[in-house]
Automatic annotation (TrEMBL):
The entry's keywords: ATP-binding, Kinase, Nucleotide-binding, Transferase
EC id: 2.7.1.4
Protein name as catalogued: Fructokinase
Superkingdom classification of source: Bacteria
rRNA-binding is among the record's keywords: no
Family statement drawn from the similarity comment of this UniProt entry: Belongs to the carbohydrate kinase PfkB family.
Pfam family, one: PfkB
Any one GO MF annotation of this record: fructokinase activity
Boundaries of every Carbohydrate kinase PfkB domain copy: 2-303
Amino acid sequence: MILCCGEALIDMIPQPTQGAQTCFTPHAGGAVFNTAIALGRLGSKPGFVTGLSRDLFGVQLAQALEESHVDCDLVIRSDLPTTLAFVELNDGQARYTFYDENTAGRSLSPDHLPDIPASVTALYFGGISLISEPCADFYAALALREAPGRAIIIDPNIRAAFIRDEVLYRARLDKMIAVADIVKVSDEDLDWIIPGPEALATKARKLRAQGPHAVIVTRGGDGALAFGAGDEAVEVPAKRVSIVDTVGAGDTFNAGVLASLMAAGLLSKARMKDIGPSAMRAALMHGACVAAVTVSRAGANPPWAHELP
């Protein structure tokens, strides 16, 4: 099992009305939530660790997880409210405004660390849950504790405008990257982590030198690259589809990659060294295929396995 560790929140998606005003419709979301949902729909039987509210939005999130076959035994429930993310769409690109103070997800601390069952071979981390304290410390502590025996995958999905203490965030992220087996970043994430004019490949190799077995870099419509043990990068193109919006695109790409590696029996600490160019290329292609379906329809709505071409 892969255990997805991070935020579950409500995306408030703008909807046009007959008048001049815009209304917002609540959709279950969050970067790590979206990846868990996509993995469940792809048949990978994931688990989920998050702080989940008992309010009406928390109930909506729990129902969505159950419907997509995500194991919620390790979810930590409370009476605090659910995080809300209001989405602004410009030419299909999503921007977010978060309402996250004193919420069920953000209020997790290292005191809440759960016992992880032996069936879990890999843990996936990412999103805004790695930014804000105390939950960021919860997830960092979990990654560092489990890294010696289980594969660690991280997608920081950096929201620079959301970071209040950049020095603290960078220090925490560096510790997590050092114990990670796979780090996935967008080209924008990579430029933020390693600023300066160096080429993308140079920066990716520098990031890999910090500890990961592999670094995956997505470039939107230009496809994805992976940098592993060898000097040569593995590259796959993006699938060409008519884009409705990009909400959840990177999250579902991650699910496709992880589902492919899991199906190949490679998603464990012991098998990380066996992920060669062929397996990585297949994983990236599957990720691109899953993401293409997601961007072709509104919101973060990952495909079921039977919907893939």
